[in-house]
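Hi R.,

As promised on Friday, here is the backbone we talked about, encoded as C-alpha cells. Could you run it through your design pipeline when you get a chance and send me back a sequence?
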C-alpha cells in the first residue's frame, strides 16, 4: 500500500478533521501497540493522496500525556505513509512567533516525562539508537516552506520547540527557563512523536500553529482559553492551503 499515501498529517488541538479531503474514507487500523487516537481518514487533497489522523481524538478527548503516539505512527506507517507532518498547537516565546503565526521549527528539547517514547520499550524488541541530532527531516521541512511560499501563506522558518508534559499550561518561571534554554515555542505533543517517526524511518516535520503567548511573554496576566481557540480557528484555516501545495513526490 506504500503507493497509496503521499503525505500523512497528524492534527493537533483545533484541527480534528480536514474538510478539504475529497473522497474521504475512514480506516480503523489495528496495531501491536493498541488503538490509535482516531480512525485514519484517507482521500485526496489537491494532487496529494493524503491520510489524516486527529492526535487528540476527533472530539479532543485525549490529553497530551495520554496520546498513544506509538499506535498513531504505526497506523500511518501501516497504510503506506512515509512522510508525516505533525500539526501542533503551541505557545509563542520568541518575539516573531506571536498568536496566529505558523512556524516550521528545526530543533526541539524534550521536557516530558513518563511517556512511552520508543518502540524499543517492549520485551524482545530491537533496540535502535537513532541519530536524533536533527529531529526534523530537512527535505520535508523545505517542502513545507516551499509550499507556503507558493500559496502565499506566511510562515517562520526555524526555531526550537520545547515539549512539556501538559495538560496544564506552564508557569512564568518555567517559560523563563525554556527561554534561557533556547526554546522559541512551547507545546505538549512534539515528543515522542518526532522520535517514533525516526524509529520507523518516516520523514517527519512539524507545522506549529501559535495559539497564544506563553506565560510571561506579553502583558496579559491570564491566558484565555477562548482566545486560544479563536486564534487557532483563524490560523489553522491556512494549514490546508500549505498542505495542498506540497509536492506529491516529496
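Update: got your reply. Pasting your designed sequence below so it's all in one thread:
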Amino acid at each position: 500500500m506504500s503507493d497509496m499515501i503521499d503525505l500523512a498529517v497528524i492534527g493537533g488541538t483545533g484541527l480534528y478533521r480536514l474538510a478539504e479531503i475529497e473522497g474521504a474514507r475512514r480506516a480503523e487500523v489495528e496495531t501491536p501497540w493498541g488503538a490509535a487516537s482516531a480512525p485514519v481518514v484517507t482521500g485526496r487533497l489537491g494532487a496529494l493522496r493524503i491520510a489524516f489522523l486527529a492526535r487528540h481524538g476527533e472530539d479532543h478527548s485525549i490529553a497530551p500525556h495520554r496520546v498513544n503516539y506509538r499506535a498513531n505512527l504505526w497506523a500511518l506507517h501501516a497504510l503506506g505513509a512515509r512522510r508525516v507532518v505533525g500539526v501542533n498547537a503551541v505557545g509563542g516565546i520568541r518575539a516573531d512567533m506571536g498568536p496566529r503565526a505558523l512556524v516550521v521549527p528545526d530543533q526541539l528539547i524534550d521536557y516530558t516525562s513518563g511517556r512511552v517514547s520508543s518502540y524499543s520499550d517492549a520485551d524482545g524488541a530491537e533496540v535502535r539508537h537513532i541519530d536524533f541530532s536533527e529531529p526534523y527531516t530537512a527535505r520535508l521541512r523545505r517542502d513545507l516552506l516551499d509550499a507556503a511560499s507558493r500559496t502565499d501563506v506566511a510562515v517562520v522558518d526555524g526555531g526550537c520547540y520545547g515539549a512539556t508534559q501538559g495538560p496544564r499550561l506552564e508557569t512564568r518561571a518555567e517559560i523563563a527557563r525554556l527561554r534561557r534554554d533556547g526554546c522559541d515555542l512551547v507545546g505538549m505533543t512534539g515528543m515522542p512523536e518526532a522520535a517514533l517517526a525516526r524509529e520507523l524511518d518516516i520523514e517527519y516535520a512539524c507545522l506549529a500553529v501559535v495559539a497564544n503567548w506563553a506565560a510571561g511573554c506579553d502583558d496579559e496576566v491570564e491566558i484565555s482559553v477562548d482566545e486560544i481557540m479563536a486564534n487557532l480557528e483563524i490560523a489553522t484555516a491556512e494549514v490546508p492551503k500549505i498542505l495542498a501545495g506540497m509536492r506529491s513526490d516529496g
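One thing I noticed while checking it: Residues 36 and 68 are 6 Å apart (CA to CA).

Thanks again,
M.
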